[in-house]
Amino acid sequence: APPSPPPPPPLPPPLLPGMVQLGCDFEVDTCVWNDTLPDGYSWTRTSGGTPSSGTGPSEDHTTGSGYYLFTEADWPRYTSPRFNKLHQLESPLLSLQQDATLSFFYHMHTHNMYIFYHMDMGTLSVEVNNNETGWSTLWSRTGDQGNSWLDAAVILPASTTKVRFNGLTGSGYRSDMALDDVSFSQFTPPSPPPLPPSLPPLSPPPPLPPLSPDFVAAASEAQLRNLIQDARADVSVYLPPGAHFKLGSPISCGSNIKVTVASSGEGATLDGQEQSRLFNLKYLTGRCSLTLRGLTLVNGRALDGGVVEAMYAGDVEIIESTVRNCGAIRDGGVVSAANSGAVSIRGSTVTGCSAGDSGGVVYALNSGAVSIIGSNVSGCSAVIGGATFLRDTNLDVTDSTISGCNATRGGAVYVHSGSASLARSTISSCIATEYGGGLYSAGGSTSLSDGALIRGCSAPKGQGSSIFLLAGEVSYTLPAPAGRWLPNARCEVYREACSYPLSEAASRAKQAACLEHRSDCALTESDAIEPSSGKKEAACSRHTDNDKQAACHETVEDPWYCQAPTFVQPCNWNNETGGDPSGLGESLYQLPLLPVNEDFPFACAAGLLGSAIPEYQSSSSCAGRCPERSQCPIEATDEALPCDAGHYCPKGTSVPLPCPAGTYSNATDLAAAGECTDASPGHFATTGSTQQTACAKGSFAAKARSEACELCAPGYFQSAPGQAACFRCAPGKLCPQGSTRELDAQCSPGTYVNVTDADGDPDCLDCPAGSSCAGGGAALAVCSPGTAAKPAQGQCTVCGVGTYQPDSGATGCLECELGTFCPKGSSAQLPATCPAGFYIGNASTTLESLDDCVGCTPGSFCAGGAAQPTACAPGSIAPSANMSACELCPIGRFAASTTACEECEAGTYAASEGLSQCTPCPYPTGSKSSDVTCSICKEGFYLRNSSAGPSDIFFLTESCQPCPRYATCNTTGTTLASLGVAPGYWRASPTTSELYPCDSETCVGSDLRVGAGLQVPRNAEEGNDPYCTHGHTGPLCEGCVAPSEYFSR
Questions:
Q1: Theoretical Cys-Cys bridge with 876: which of 353, 684, 886, 897, CB 3.0 to 4.6 Å?
Q2: Count of CB atoms within 10 A of residue 134's CB?
Q3: 645 with 685: CB under 8 angstroms?
Q4: Pairing state of beta strands 467-477 and 439-449?
Q5: Helix, strand or coil for residue 117?
Q6: What digits encode the pLDDT tens for the residues 980-1008?
Q7: Among 829, 827, 828, which residue's Cα sits nearest to residue 819?
Q8: In sequence order, which residues have a C-beta less than 8 Å from that of residue 743 and are 6 or more positions away?
Q9: Does a cis peptide bond (omega within 30 degrees of 0) precede residue 879?
Q10: At 698, is the pLDDT very low, low, confident or very high (cuts 50, 70, 90)?
Q11: Are 439 and 466 in contact, with CB atoms under 8 Å apart?
């Protein structure tokens, strides 16, 4: 038997079962997407720019001249503006069986000269629905994202039943957001890129002084307690490493002294046993200060201050220590300080501490500064301020991390009043059940700088996942962490315009001086027309350009004529209103009184390259689009990754694009599809291939850039892989389709093929006695009654006159007895008087008259003599009575019964005579009734190549193509020339399948009529163009039929 053909090349993953095609480029309509809100705020389909200036794209993403969808926030601006209005675009019902990817391009840009105007943009989000949890948000962007189309990809869970795009316009008319090129594919998780470092590197804290030699050792809890509580002067106590002191009550210090408790090596442990705080610092006779160094502090419990309560006390320091599982019923899970000195946590780790009210780690009221330096705080909680709560107190968090904390308000930090500073520190994965997952500002001022980051925190929707700003001020001074950005602006003094009259020389001089020193005046907080020399010197020093700084210093004694500050300022530099003039000249971002619901600073979008340089951190464009030949696959990418092998990466790539089918590449630095290598002849490459694959034996690829190999046609073979052609079979050899070698010639008459042979070669065996073997590939056939055969015969021998054979499979014929008649082919001895076509119709064994012989009925034959009627074999008929033999049905017909042959129905064929049924045409070919082969295409398909012969169509079914969209192939046998066109569409000629929608009054498209199996376009019989109104012609119906007329718009 011939070998099995090689498996076909792998196909791209199909759309998931039950899933509609979500892909849409909006060039014709909105495809399957529908507006779902009843108030009329619908997504608008348009091309070019949007009606409002300074917002929206200038062209579509697909071609630059096509269509896209957008949210109109402006019109009608003065009568009914669409500010803060929700637009929803929803998919039909889905049925997924595994995760899938929804990709799209979006545009969110607004331009205005005023600072913070980007907040007018609004929010674009993607929501999914499932039957259990309802709608949930998977992706969102808020504010200005830059003036370019950006791509996004959202992973849809397998439980998704619907998807929708939500476009919430902003508070101004320049908040048009746009959507284009939505696509859907089966989700294949990409190889994850290297993860960025989880936290910014911590700067080591300044070295601590060594333990002084005057330490007093304490070997027990009682000795430690006595040394502190009895002290009337400064005391330093040393605890031996590994010691574990259990405290049943707090150790108190009420004197105006400094107490130090320290250990070394593995450190000593002070354990409150979950029943007592560790230290009391309360005003008795003085303000006691406490330093804890190199210790493990665990299980402290109290009403306030699980480790230390300081009330009207001195400073509290926790240095190079570990604090675990401490808590307060009310305030300060570790330290509660009221009207006391400074609180400092340096080089320490605090884990799992809590407060029932405020400050899971530190609560500070009207006290000295709270410092968390070079420390890690995690898993702490409170009702307000999961880590810290500040009131009339300043906070400094430097080179530290606060993670996994939670509170009702302020998952990490709550600032009531005072000031807070976060530098080179990270707040991550903190939670607020009401407001401010990372930071809650109820007053005071908070500044972030030098790479400070709030990320991965959460709060209820819209309530400040990172920051909730109720009151006070929050600002950020660059640099931000690498890969992040803020809409920073230079902090300076906005002043009234120089407006001295030009009518007099003195006034003109003042005007010139005012204009000359306008940039100098912008850097001084003085509201005087002539600031003091000291104020001028300070302003000059704030210039970042050395030349400007030097020129400014030279004019300190000259008049500047600074104008009065304006009412609106970009930052709070006025110390009279709680501002800080030291920020003048700095690049900073002053947050508006709005919640921040994403990581802060904002992450550069995927496809953009971030930077650690402040110059590239003041815009959502970051350092620009990802360089070509590289990919920026995730948000906050600050180092582009090489493109994936088998893919190419144009500028701005977030998801590498696969090399097209027929090409490949193992390089990781391609910028365009044209740089992929064409598969050479004899090879193929599927989409995204890293190398070409050789064609298997029995197949070939004649041309370069093949995406699949073809099987060798019947009569050809190929014994080697990777070939561009097949060889013709030698005369006398056998080569079925896909042959890898020439096979032996077909069997000769008298032999038959052993089709079960396992070696792939057909063996010819001698025909057994009693059977016939026609040769070729035919199977053996048992001889019927009236015939016989010796071994190795090509056909059965018909019994001659005077002989008969009643059995099947006989090796010879028998002699008729005397008194009987045996015509040729007799299967029984017959009375000599019954002619062929008749049989004995009664029980008589001898004939007395012709009335005893009965004519054979239609559908059977009578050999004559004594033989009884024999039904016609399948594929043969006896259409009339008295027939001595049955007739074979001719080709193109089959024996529907034993009396008549019928034509094969359309869609079937009969290639040989003597068939009892017709063979269905292979899909998608067809046939006309009584055809002997399948040479046309069935309904719903059309013949692409009108010059193809019947055998080409029969064996190469790809000649029949599915009917194009908006075309009609309502009859079998449709060709490219006879392809019908749906009403409202037209095509340029009968040789193209490209259909176009009518877009003018003169173009009405086709009005098909079906008659006699042909599709006749409207007006065709009158000689008019089938797609145009009367008198018009041409591809766009912009020509005139009459030579005396011309077309005019």
A1: 886
A2: 9
A3: no
A4: parallel
A5: helix
A6: 888 888 887 788 888 888 877 778 776 54
A7: 829
A8: 2, 733, 734, 735, 736, 760, 761, 762
A9: no
A10: very high
A11: yes
Query: How many whole angstroms separate alpha carbon 783 and alpha carbon 797?
Result: 8
Cα atoms in the 13 Å half-sphere on the side-chain side of 921: 34
Identity at 97, one-letter amino acid code: Q
| Alpha carbon distances (Å) from 509 to 506, 540, 557, 563, 798 | 5, 22, 16, 15, 135
CA dist 1035 and 724 (Å) reads 41
Q: For residue 886, what are the contacts with CB-CB under 8 A and spacing of at least 6?
A: 860, 861, 872, 873, 876, 877, 878, 898
Region 658-665: what's the mean pLDDT? 96
The pLDDT assigned to 10 comes to 42
The type of residue at 826 is: S
d(CA 761, CA 93): 55
Instruction: Please give the Cα distance from 43 to 66 (Å, whole number).
Output: 16
The β-bridge relationship of strands 587-590 and 489-490 is antiparallel
Residue labelled with tokens 């190079």: 320
Proportion of the chain above pLDDT 70, given as a percent = 85
76 pLDDT band, cuts 50/70/90, is low
pLDDT for position 114: 39
Beta bridge partners of 217: 238
What is the spatial distance between Cα 569 and Cα 494, in angstroms, rounded to a whole number? 6
Taking the alpha carbons at both ends of the chain, their separation in whole angstroms is 70
Q: How far apart are CA 794 and CA 796, in angstroms?
A: 7
Is 251:272 a contact under the CB 8 Å cutoff? no
- pLDDT computed for residue 3 by the predictor: 43
Query: Is 581:573 a contact under the CB 8 Å cutoff?
Result: yes
Q: For tokens 């009259």, name the residue.
A: 501
- What pLDDT does 820 receive? 67
Kindly state the helix (H) or strand (E) to which residue 516 belongs, with its residue range.
helix 505-516
β-sheet bridge partners, residue 445: 419, 473
Partners of 288 in beta bridges: none
